[in-house]
């Protein structure tokens, strides 16, 4: 679930089902057009490691 996402900065955080916060960058959002996420939006993703810790990759809106 998307915790928050800042369109202007192009990043935000997703909360995993286990309650872990994962950084998400707009470049990891799959799909065409403007890539953004809405607070509370359900998403599917893979968990990976970024430069600063846990990161969501291959993010797909449900």
List the helices and strands and how they pair.
Layout: E1 2-6, E2 11-15, E3 21-25, E4 43-50, E5 53-61
Antiparallel strand pairs: 1-2, 2-3, 4-5
Describe what you observe in this structure.
0% of the residues lie in helices and 52% in strands. The protein contains no helices and five strands. It has strands spanning 2-6, 11-15, 21-25, 43-50, 53-61. The strands form two sheets. A three-stranded antiparallel β-sheet has the order 1-2-3, with no helix packed on it. The protein has a two-stranded antiparallel ribbon with strand order 4-5. The radius of gyration is 10 Å and the shape is globular. The model has no long low-confidence stretch (mean pLDDT 95).
**Low-confidence sequence ranges:** none
What overall form do the CA principal axes indicate?
A: globular
What is the count of β-strands?
Answer: 5
The top-level CATH class is: Mainly Beta
Q: Give the distance, in angstroms, between the N- and C-terminal Cα atoms.
A: 10 Å
Largest pleated sheet? 3 strands, antiparallel
* Strand-pairing-aware structural class: mainly beta
Concise synopsis of the structure shown:
The chain is mainly β and 62 residues long.
Features:
mainly beta; 62 residues; 3-stranded antiparallel sheet; globular; OB fold (Dihydrolipoamide Acetyltransferase, E2P)
């Amino acid at each position: 679930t998307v915790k928050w996402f800042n369109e202007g900065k192009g990043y935000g955080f997703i909360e995993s089902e286990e309650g872990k916060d994962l950084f998400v960058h707009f470049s990891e959002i799959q799909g065409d057009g403007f890539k953004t996420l809405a607070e509370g939006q359900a998403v599917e993703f893979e968990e990976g490691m970024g430069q600063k810790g846990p990161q969501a990759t291959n993010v797909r809106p449900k």
